[in-house]
Specification:
single chain, alpha/beta, Four Helix Bundle (Hemerythrin (Met), subunit A), 2 domains, 12 helices, 8 strands, about 50% helix, signal recognition particle binding, Signal recognition particle receptor FtsY, GTPase activity, nucleotide-binding, P-loop_NTPase
Length: about 325
Amino acid sequence: MSLFKKIFSSQKKETLDKGLEKSNTSFFSKLGKAVAGKSKVDDDVLDNLEEVLVSSDVGVDTTLKIIKRIEARVARDKYIGTDELNSILREEIAGLLSETNDADFFELQISTDKKPYVIMVVGVNGVGKTTTIGKLAHRFKKQGLKVVLGAADTFRAAAIDQLQVWADRVEVPIVKQQMGSDPASVAFDTLSSAVKQDADVVIIDTAGRLHNKVNLMNELTKVKRVMQKVVDNTPHEVLLVLDGSTGQNAFEQAKQFTKTTEVTSLAITKLDGTAKGGVVIGISDQFKIPVKYIGVGEGIEDLQVFNKHEFVDSFFKI
């Protein structure tokens, strides 16, 4: 029986609209200039649209896919007015996102042989990793689930302290050791404690360093191996947290982390403070990894499950 029942489905659409307001305003400002004086979608409009999408951090490869889809529509329908461009963009981008995000809401399933459900969180320092963990813990606890946090980013005292602050705020137990301790040892202790407490969910924080990818890969591999001594086939999920406000840098981080570990889901944060919301479209398409959560505000409730239809609607809201 599932212990997760569309946890985030009640999130208000207004929060998403507000969180994507800067991206929306920036995009339509550029789009207005791209179609100025044009009534028909022609080669010039498509060239200008390509520039708009790239400059909106959708990414070159994904932009070319979108342009190709619209070109096919133009060839098929013969005449498409520029006033139809917004609705066509919505349809084609939603279709593109559907190839990776094939569900409106994610339902995390826990069976009797998958408890506790273990989420290992990865990402560089400063992307909102600890905040995302805290907000996830809050959401899960609201559903009556028992959550345990593991502070396996032992290379920074601040990382341990920040996670402790969230554990106190959400009122969930945390397992930690001294700064400089073996991260795998922390993960082992966390899972052992979670099993004894009959916990439903374990969220493990990990170090956010990319300057030495070999060491990072070895460390994450060791953490996984040690966790499997306590609970088979863990982690059940490897969640990569990316800062949406960094635009193309988020692409590079996704590229590096997907090389070093098997990422199964993405959380893209800080979308409310940037005009770079298009990065969600590009990263979802390029890496074929589901975008599971998006951060659209600073409040504890402002972490939403990614819904492709609602995202596209807010991004292209007139």
